[in-house]
Amino acid sequence: MFFMLRMRTGACAEQVEGRGACSRVSSGVWGCDAEWVGAEPSLDPRPILELPLDRLVQKLRDEELSLESVLCSYLEEALKVHQEVNCLTDFLDECEEQLQALKKLKKTERGLLYGVPITLKDPYNCKGHDSTCGLAQFLEKPAAKDGVIVKVLKAQGAIPFVKTNIPQTLFSAECSNPIYGQTLNPLRLKKSPGGSSGGEGVLFAQGGSILGMGTDTGGSIRIPASFCGVCGLRTTGYRLSYSGVASAIKGQKSVTSVAGPMARDVESLVLCLRALLSEDMHRLDPTVPFMPFREEIYSSNQPLRIGYCESDGFTQPSPSMARAMRLTSRLLQDAGHQVIPFSIPRIEYAVKHLFVGGLFADGGATLLEKLYICQDSDIGDGVGGGAGRDSGPGKGL
Fold first, then answer.
1. How deeply is 9 buried, as exposed, middle or buried, from its count of CB atoms within 10 A (0-12, 13-18, 19+)?
2. What is the mean predicted confidence (pLDDT) over 123-129?
3. How far is it, in rounded angstroms, from Cα 306 to Cα 287?
4. Nearest 5 degrees, angle CA 235-CA 238-CA 239?
5. Do 277 and 293 touch, CB atoms closer than 8 A?
6. Looking at the chain, which terminus has fewer C-beta neighbours within 10 angstroms, N or C?
């Protein structure tokens, strides 16, 4: 085994009775030590961490870099970032076993993401690990198998190695929950990193990840990408499989939640989509239309017709963001594209009745059931900082 991770946990802020989950419920989360066994003692990770994704993949495929050195570099950096801003929820210890399996592949069998360390937002199911959504009810209930997207990423050679923090229930633009605590924005520690894919956003901002997967319903990839100065893509609904992604509200279909990649640059998002939109995706989830990445459209220089709005009429952008929209519009026009301003009709009705009403069509009953831990629950009497018998139903949202 080329490295070993030792986890130290602090005392629980509030003990979760009868579940054995105390070691993972704390006001901070984990203090982490990494001990490298068999790695180069003089290895400088900076040249590895500074490589863009496409060059990293090429060096791995050409065996100019070892799989161990790349994974060790990113794991060590992710732990450093976590100690600063509290962004990780789980270490996927099977990554070392997967790495050894990748080393046995022939060059012709290596996928598009061969050897790439990848981070996953908390709700992505990984066999043997919890997907909590920040809810105590989901603690100590490890997934029986990997989700479809995790399987496809592994088939393409990616190595998931950590899961990242989220807000309780995922329905928030923040990044805090009673289990793993508050994630900070590394660019300004008193500010939020955004959510709900906030743990992913801060890792990219600080160099602790080169590629990751978030989810997005109403901005959960786009908001942390904006707050942390990184890139993310909310894919079209049902373009990628959502099978094996945990949710606080099962069966909610009115407002589609989607999976999407996050990275430091757009080119990395493109490479990830090329890998995901494969035959494996359709084979593992036949509900996903078999439509591979459309290279001819991406590579085309044909002018596009692009619509934009500087404000949606419901929330106002900051002056800097409005200025960025105008600058982007001018740059697109200079590149030969047709840019058309538009306004969104009936925005207040759409937000209140279609978006919020669609998400909580049952009046929030399902969500309250997850948040409120009653005295007779097999999970215990409450979780520090969240909903419990002393705070009343729904106070933890």
1. middle
2. 99
3. 30
4. 50
5. yes
6. N
Residue with token string 């306004």: 343
Q: Residue 378, Cβ neighbours under 10 Å: how many?
A: 9
What is residue 259's predicted lDDT score, i.e. its pLDDT? Answer: 98
Model pLDDT for residues 86-111, shown as the tens digit of each residue: 999 999 999 999 999 999 999 999 99
Q: Is the pLDDT of residue 343 over 60?
A: yes
Q: Tell me the β-bridge partners of 308.
A: 341
Name the 3-class secondary structure at 319. Answer: helix
**In CATH, which of 3.90.1010.10, 3.30.460.80, 1.20.1250.20, 3.90.1300.10 is domain 3-300?**
3.90.1300.10
More reliable by pLDDT, 52 or 253 = 52
Q: Which amino acid is it at 222?
A: R
Mean of all residue pLDDT scores within the chain: 86
For 115, the 3-state DSSP assignment is coil
Q: Count other Cβ atoms within 10 Å, centred on residue 190.
A: 6
- From first CA to last CA, the distance across the chain in angstroms is 42
Scan for tokens 């160099």, then name that residue. Answer: 207
Task: Tell me the helix, strand and coil percentages in the chain, rounded to 5.
Answer: 35, 15, 50
User: What does the domain layout of the chain look like in residue ranges?
Assistant: 3-300, 301-397
How far is Cα 217 from Cα 259, in angstroms, rounded to an integer? 9
260, amino acid identity: G
Widest Cα–Cα separation across the chain = 65
What 3-state DSSP class applies to 364? coil
Tokens coding 93 = 């210890």
Residues paired with residue 262 on neighbouring β-strands, in sequence order: 212, 232
Contact between residue 121 and residue 202 where contact means Cβ atoms under 8 Å apart: no
Pairwise CA distance, residues 46 & 68, whole Å: 15
Q: Which residues pair with 305 in a beta bridge?
A: 338
Return the active site residues: 121, 196, 220
What CA–CA distance (Å, rounded) separates 330 from 324?
A: 10
Give yes or no for a contact between 281 and 241, defined as CB atoms under 8 angstroms apart: yes
